[in-house]
UniProtKB/TrEMBL annotation:
<dbReference type="InterPro" id="IPR043128">
    <property type="entry name" value="Rev_trsase/Diguanyl_cyclase"/>
</dbReference>
<protein>
    <recommendedName>
        <fullName>UmuC domain-containing protein</fullName>
    </recommendedName>
</protein>
<feature type="region of interest" description="Disordered">
    <location>
        <begin position="409"/>
        <end position="428"/>
    </location>
</feature>
<dbReference type="InterPro" id="IPR017961">
    <property type="entry name" value="DNA_pol_Y-fam_little_finger"/>
</dbReference>
<dbReference type="InterPro" id="IPR043502">
    <property type="entry name" value="DNA/RNA_pol_sf"/>
</dbReference>
<dbReference type="InterPro" id="IPR001126">
    <property type="entry name" value="UmuC"/>
</dbReference>
<feature type="domain" description="UmuC">
    <location>
        <begin position="11"/>
        <end position="258"/>
    </location>
</feature>
<dbReference type="GO" id="GO:0006281">
    <property type="term" value="P:DNA repair"/>
</dbReference>
<dbReference type="Pfam" id="PF00817">
    <property type="entry name" value="IMS"/>
</dbReference>
<dbReference type="Pfam" id="PF11799">
    <property type="entry name" value="IMS_C"/>
</dbReference>
<dbReference type="InterPro" id="IPR036775">
    <property type="entry name" value="DNA_pol_Y-fam_lit_finger_sf"/>
</dbReference>
<feature type="region of interest" description="Disordered">
    <location>
        <begin position="541"/>
        <end position="563"/>
    </location>
</feature>
<dbReference type="GO" id="GO:0003684">
    <property type="term" value="F:damaged DNA binding"/>
</dbReference>
<dbReference type="GO" id="GO:0070987">
    <property type="term" value="P:error-free translesion synthesis"/>
</dbReference>
<dbReference type="GO" id="GO:0003887">
    <property type="term" value="F:DNA-directed DNA polymerase activity"/>
</dbReference>
């Protein structure tokens, strides 16, 4: 993207306050006024602000938390369903409020919105002689939808926190400032709507790119927002404010610079390995190496960074990319709203052997059922033009996408080395097969379908992967629905190509999958889905793979490119960066 253009973007970044705790509070409002902690394994993954006031912290051990605040209510948060659903609901709410279709989720509790077009439009509506009585239009088709605001002032905290009295803004900066004034009011409005309609408070950053919007949000937490404003002086350097803002940040805090990259850069600047906190906190580095330290290090630049960061896992141009980030430049687009996830998967990890075949089968059934339930949540929508006369009480749902492939992956646990030490962690192995059509049958319960799925597909796949007869030592089993074939829809986000034709065909294609009423009759759905030849037998499609499967993007990690994954040194799993600290503690505890 052209630089001048990227300077004009207005990006808003949301991070929900105490997300998991807020989800639990919204289910049970009585918990709002008491200290509340959410437990996963032996760790407090988050806690509400009442608990934080009493000394509880995120990623604290439960034992510590009980000592610090014995009166805290501790709720188990290992089943992620409620958090995932709330996350999706909030995301849908936010993405529907904006126009660009660019709304990107990171993990469960962060969303970027590209609001450039809304700001452009509303700048055009301003009466420059009476800015304090402005109206922000939220719907081009209905000029009455929106909110009144004072465009002569920014809303909420800013960076820099107060304008330098002697600075005269250039005309370009004046224009830019006005855009962010509008951005700040839009952010306030969206935060307010999210709170009043959905019950969630959030912390928001408003800036000209994704990197800065995300970091800006951290400046004032919780229930607040921060806007990065011009001036970008001195000496007319357009990036000046941005650089000042970034300079104090620890290098590891910059999104896009993960733990390993940060350690390499620190080692270079310090001239030795940088020590990092060990034990159960693993919070990061003990030694602060700031963006300023790196940027001002003699000879530092894209080329030097390329040299420092070369090695496994690095990519061509990494030096330039990281250098841009250190200078506040990030041309990455906010990803477009996706109607369906690229894949859905369910997995579980196991600390103990699965001894008997019955145990394996039980796990496959459990995972299969979770997968089908997930497919129902993510891939079904109400069929508006469905029910006919007299049919209004019947909920009709239709599939908006069909995963064509079922994949089973396992991760065998390696034997320990001859010295008793831990051997190198092993890789996942997997098998894929066509998704059996019966899983799309909505007249059967997920549990019944999952029994059949386990018997007819997952067990045979498992047998192909593991020839042993008993005592499987697996650290993980994952079942996934992949290779989505999207059904067309009217939404602008839909990828369906010939929408009209696909709509006409949809009735025919999906008639067997419609639910009209619970029925005794089980449809034979075998030949109803197109693009799958009956000749493709399970065996013929099974392809063994011994290569490591990267953690692929699904609805939860939305866009694999933006979700920072880091590899755990102990089990070598790819873990979202935000969860790595807790994940390492999990290993500590299980040793
Ligand atoms: N989470 C987790 N494991 C981690 C970190 C976070 O399971 N190591 C979960 C719990 C959090 C949610 O992700 O509620 C979002 O993470 P945040 O870091 O944004 O934390 P919170 O939203 O809970 O708190 P804050 O108000 O500081 O944003
Ligand atoms: Mg967060
Ligand atoms: Mg949060």
């Amino acid at each position: 993207m052209h630089r001048a253009c990227s300077l004009q973007r207005v990006i808003i970044h949301f991070d929900y306050d105490c997300f998991y705790a807020s989800v639990v509070e919204n289910e049970n409002p009585a918990l709002k006024s008491v200290p509340l902690a959410i437990q996963q394994k032996q760790i407090v993954v988050t806690c509400n602000y009442e608990a934080r006031r009493r000394g509880l912290r995120k990623l604290q051990l439960i034992t510590e938390a009980r000592k610090v605040c014995p009166e805290a209510v501790i709720v188990l948060g290992e089943d992620l369903t409620r958090f995932r659903d709330a996350s999706k609901d909030l995301y849908n709410f936010l993405q529907q409020s904006i126009w660009s279709g660019r709304a990107e989720r990171l993990g469960f509790d962060e969303v970027w919105l590209d609001c450039t077009d809304m700001i452009d439009y509303n700048i055009g509506l301003l009466n420059l002689n009476d800015l304090s009585h402005s109206f922000f239009c939220m719907n081009k088709d209905d000029p009455t939808i929106g909110f009144a605001y004072d465009a002569s002032n920014v809303y909420g905290p800013t960076y820099p926190s107060s304008p330098c009295p002697t600075t005269v803004l250039s005309e370009q900066d004046e224009e830019l400032r006005l855009r962010f004034v509008l951005g700040s009011h839009l952010a306030r409005h969206l935060r307010h709507e999210l709170e009043s309609q959905k019950g969630y408070t959030s912390t928001v950053g408003i800036a000209m790119n994704k990197l800065l919007a995300k970091l800006a949000g951290n400046v004032n937490k919780p229930k607040n927002q921060t806007t990065i404003l011009p001036p970008r002086e001195p000496l007319g350097d357009p990036e000046r404010t941005v650089i000042r803002f970034l300079d104090d940040h620890d290098i590891g805090k910059i999104p896009g610079i993960g733990f390993k990259l940060a350690q390499k850069i620190r080692a270079h600047v310090l001239g030795r390995e940088a020590a990092f906190s060990e034990g159960p906190t693993y919070a990061g580095t003990k030694e602060l190496v700031t963006v300023f330290d790196v940027r001002s290090y003699p000879g530092m630049g894209p080329k030097r960074l390329d040299e420092i960061l070369a090695g496994p896992g690095s990519f061509k141009g990494i030096g330039g990319k990281i250098w841009d980030l250190l200078n506040g430049m990030d041309d990455a687009e906010v990803a477009k709203v996706r109607r369906v996830p690229s894949q859905i998967s369910q997995e579980d990890s196991y600390m103990k052997y699965l001894h008997t075949f019955e145990e394996v089968k039980k796990q496959l059934h459990i995972l299969g059922e979770r997968l089908i339930r997930r497919m129902h949540m993510d891939l079904l929508e109400d069929d508006d033009d469905g029910g006919g006369i007299g049919d209004c009480e019947t909920l009709r749902r239709r599939w908006i996408a069909h995963p064509r492939t079922l994949r089973l992956s396992t991760r065998p646990r390696p034997l320990s080395g001859p010295d008793g030490g831990r051997a190198r962690a092993s890789q996942r192995i997997s098998r894929s097969a066509p998704m059996p059509n019966f899983v799309f049958n909505l007249n059967e319960t997920p549990s019944t379908l999952a029994l059949r799925l386990a018997d007819e597909a997952l067990v045979p796949m498992f047998r192909k992967l593991h020839h042993e007869q008993a005592s499987w030592n697996l650290s993980l089993i994952n079942v996934a629905a992949t290779n989505m074939a999207e059904t067309a829809a009217e939404t602008k986000e839909s990828k369906g190509r010939d929408i009209g034709r696909m709509f006409r065909r949809q009735d025919e294609i999906l008639k067997d999958f419609r639910v009209t009423a619970p029925s005794e009759e089980v449809n034979d759905t075998r030949s109803a889905i197109p693009d799958r030849s009956a000749a493709q037998s399970l065996d013929a499609m099974m392809a063994e793979s011994t290569s490591d499967i990267p953690v692929e993007d699904d609805w939860d990690s939305e866009d694999g490119k933006s979700q920072q994954l880091e590899r755990c040194e102990i089990c070598e799993n790819a873990i979202p960066a935000f969860a790595l600290a807790a994940h390492r503690r999990y290993h500590d505890l299980s040793n």
